[in-house]
Amino acid sequence: MAQPPVDSTPIVSIENVSKVFGNGANSTTALHRVNLSIQAGEFVSLIGPSGCGKSTLLRLVADLLQPTEGTIRVKGKTPRQARLDRDYGMVFQSPVLYDWRTVKRNVQLPLEIMRYPPAERERLAEEMLALVGLAEFRNHRPWQLSGGMQQRVAIARALAFKPSILLMDEPFGALDELTRERMNYELLNIWGQTNTTVIFVTHSIPEAVFLSSRVVVMTPRPGKIEKVIPIDLPRPRTFETREQTRFFELVTEVRESLRET
Amino acid sequence: MAIEVPEIYAERAADRLIFGRATRLTRRYAPALAVFVLVILAWEWAFHYFQIGSFLLRPPSSIARKFVELCPPASIGPGFANAAVTFVSGLAQPSRWSRLGLDVYGAMGDCTLFGRGLYTFMEAIGGYIIGCGLGLLVGLGIARWPAASRLIMPYAIATNSIPIIALSPIMTVWFGIEQGSKIAIVAVMTFFPMLLSTIRGLHSADRASLDLMRSYAATELEVFFKLRLPTALPFMFSALKVATTLSMIGAVVAEFFGGFTKALGVYIKSEASLLHLDEAWAAIIVACVLGIAFYWVIALIERLALPWHVSFRTSDE
Which residues of B touch A77 (CB under 8 A)? Predict the structure, then answer.
């Protein structure tokens, strides 16, 4: 698969964004003067130690938080407008599935809220469950699935209404290493088929390198962007990708820029 | 690949295959049943062996005889059917509401024990519906407008800490000696558990679930019905279950302070004061049976309403 097409106008632009929590003596600067542009179809990872503001930055884009200063534009709109236009699919560290719904009805949740007709809800949910390989678990309850399967349901749900941007906040952080590598691979497959723009928060260096077209290295106190590292590994990336010399060079490069902090 | 199954699991799996549901239920409840039988037998034996004065303790056999006398088994079935018809038809006619308790008592016929029981049970249910209903409504309001919580909650908590039964004589002055005052007591007793659980339940949706709804630009009503209410239901049901027993206690104890002579609480108190202990024990059994039945009905509704809840998951799911 070729590198996704790069558009000249960014789908997400972050300009001089700062975020301060609290006020006066108790205030904490979570982000200080952050600038970043993301092109449509890109897979961008935000990586850094705890407290570097990577999740905060994601939440600012998602309109779950408001910046203290600076502007964010999503498809030329404010994040709030983009949220109201249902441009975001979100995946959190925990799958956040509703126990009172079956797997399929969990996937249909956003479709119900967005007033899709029942036949369309049915079709899209089936399509998404097939995409994440869980079609035969459609009538199971979330607690009957393993952690990795639950997170796949969460991804199916996030993609069900075909959002243009997928925001993922450490989605595989709670999974074991082997499941995590398999999920990374599957996520890339799904991304290849949907061509969504992904912003992905992680603290795993190999995960960030394996997945991304660019890795944004962030540093704490105050949170800012240290370095943006383009990942020139060819696609499609497979399990062999992780054994290539170039993969290790890039992992080392990310690790060293994290160490400089 | 051969998987070694720990013996206990193999045994359980074999149970599922070989024994039916009835056998499993028996196995589950048999120990408790055995304890019950042993206690009754020990009680009977101790009564005769130690020659305990009959004004202190009565043997189970004597209580059972009295129970059958006050509630002939043949009258139970027709009595309950009759009482149910009387209650439902009486509910439809507001002019008969004031004497509905008496009518239901009369409808039980020869089984006066359950006639008294149902009279008191009506107070418990009436107060339960009013108390839990108001608790739910006020809880919904407070959860929606947290400012109202600062206005109301200090008083709610303060009122909850006074012994509500102490209000019984006042309630009698306000709502009359018959069922009204008991309904009021039960309503006050059940209101607070329901209120507190409703508020806690509605506030217990986690941040990620709420963020998810926000990312869908869901309306407040959608967040309520698709997230907050399902999250709150287990909390609400645990309050509804606690309130069943509270309501029965409230109704019986409120009757100790005076009430209609056919009421169960009045009966227990007056018979006990005459040292008619067989009658008092038989009436206590009726109070237990009705209280447990009430609890089971609510627990069953919970099971049907929340089949997904963690407490009902079985190991083979």
Answer: none
Would an 8 Å CB–CB cutoff place B29 in contact with chain A? no
Distance from CA of B298 to the nearest CA of A (A): 19
Do residue B212 and residue A96 have CB atoms under 8 angstroms apart?
yes
In tens, the pLDDT along A238-259 reads 888 888 999 999 999 999 998 8
Chain A interface residues (partner B, CB cutoff 8 A): 62-64, 83-84, 86, 88-90, 92-94, 96, 98-100, 109-110, 112-114, 141, 143-144, 167
Which residues is A28 bridged to in the sheet?
A21
Cα separation of B200 and B212, whole Å? 21
Contacts of A84 in chain B (CB under 8 A): 217
Q: What confidence tens digit (pLDDT) does each residue in B204-217 have?
A: 999 999 999 999 99
Q: CB–CB of A113 and B222 under 8 A?
A: yes
Q: What angle do CA B234, B237, B239 make, to 5 degrees?
A: 115
What is the residue whose two structure tokens read 């600076």? A70
ipTM: 0.87
Chain B environment of A141 (Cβ under 8 Å): 308, 317
pLDDT < 70: residue spans in chain A: 1-8, 261
Integer CA distances (angstroms), B207 to A66, A156, A226, B212, in order: 16, 21, 30, 9
Q: pTM (2 decimals)?
A: 0.81
Say how far apart CA A199 and CA A57 lie, in whole Å: 10
